[in-house]
């Protein structure tokens, strides 16, 4: 299953890594307002919705291994949200970033759609939930590693890139989610496997749309066009 999912996500992951939001973080050109928007949308809306969808999958998991993985991930997700907020608050004055204001901005339409996707997928079925939730953990690992490894020396955002990286142990979470998807697919009908792949495919496009939503102050090159 994971090889099939890797082939599905490869072209979209490339677009995400090359997106002006992430390239602007790497080279230091991203407007501060865009990073503030990212933190607000991610911690205010997307991560809480993801945590609740994880909790639903933990309750629906057919075995203890799945319940444990999703349950632990609920705590990890909420801890990560709090850590991002704290890191931004600590770094904002030195980086010249705007302060966060929870009352300032509601969920962007694409972020609201992404959050609703997590909720509806987890409620639809366990297979749909697994497919929908896997892209975030997978893309987070790839994006944070790429930021760390390709940041331009002297970039103003180097302290944020360091704080944003979840640590080397996060790769164990990616592997655990991938192994769960493999096990689930091995004991699934063709229709259930399609639920996993179809929701995974939708999920990776939501990841790209999230970068678009957060990069609103950044003009996206025309050649990237429709996706």
Automatic annotation (TrEMBL):
<comment type="pathway">
    <text>Cofactor biosynthesis; thiamine diphosphate biosynthesis.</text>
</comment>
<dbReference type="InterPro" id="IPR050967">
    <property type="entry name" value="Thiamine_Salvage_TenA"/>
</dbReference>
<protein>
    <submittedName>
        <fullName>TenA family transcriptional regulator</fullName>
    </submittedName>
</protein>
<dbReference type="InterPro" id="IPR004305">
    <property type="entry name" value="Thiaminase-2/PQQC"/>
</dbReference>
<dbReference type="GO" id="GO:0005829">
    <property type="term" value="C:cytosol"/>
</dbReference>
<dbReference type="InterPro" id="IPR016084">
    <property type="entry name" value="Haem_Oase-like_multi-hlx"/>
</dbReference>
<feature type="domain" description="Thiaminase-2/PQQC">
    <location>
        <begin position="15"/>
        <end position="210"/>
    </location>
</feature>
<dbReference type="Pfam" id="PF03070">
    <property type="entry name" value="TENA_THI-4"/>
</dbReference>
């Amino acid at each position: 299953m994971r090889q099939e999912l890797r082939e599905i996500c490869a072209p979209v992951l490339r677009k995400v890594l090359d997106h002006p939001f992430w390239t602007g973080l790497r080279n230091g050109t991203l407007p501060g307002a865009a990073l503030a928007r990212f933190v607000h949308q991610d911690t205010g809306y997307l991560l809480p919705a993801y945590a609740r969808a994880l909790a639903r999958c933990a309750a629906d998991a057919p075995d203890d291994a799945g319940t444990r993985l999703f349950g632990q991930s609920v705590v990890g997700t909420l801890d990560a949200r709090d850590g991002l907020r704290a890191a931004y608050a600590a770094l904002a004055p030195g980086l010249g970033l705007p302060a966060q204001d929870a009352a300032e901005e509601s969920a962007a339409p694409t972020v609201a759609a992404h959050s609703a996707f997590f909720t509806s997928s987890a409620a639809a079925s366990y297979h749909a939930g697994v497919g929908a939730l896997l892209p975030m953990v997978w893309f987070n690992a790839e994006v944070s590693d790429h930021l760390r490894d390709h940041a331009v020396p002297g970039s103003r955002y180097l302290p944020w890139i360091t704080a944003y990286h979840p640590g080397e142990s996060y790769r164990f979470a990616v592997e655990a989610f991938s192994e769960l998807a493999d096990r689930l697919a091995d004991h699934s009908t063709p229709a259930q496997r399609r639920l996993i792949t179809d929701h995974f495919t939708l999920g990776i496009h939501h990841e790209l749309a999230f970068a678009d939503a957060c990069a609103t102050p950044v003009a996206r090159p025309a050649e990237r066009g429709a996706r």
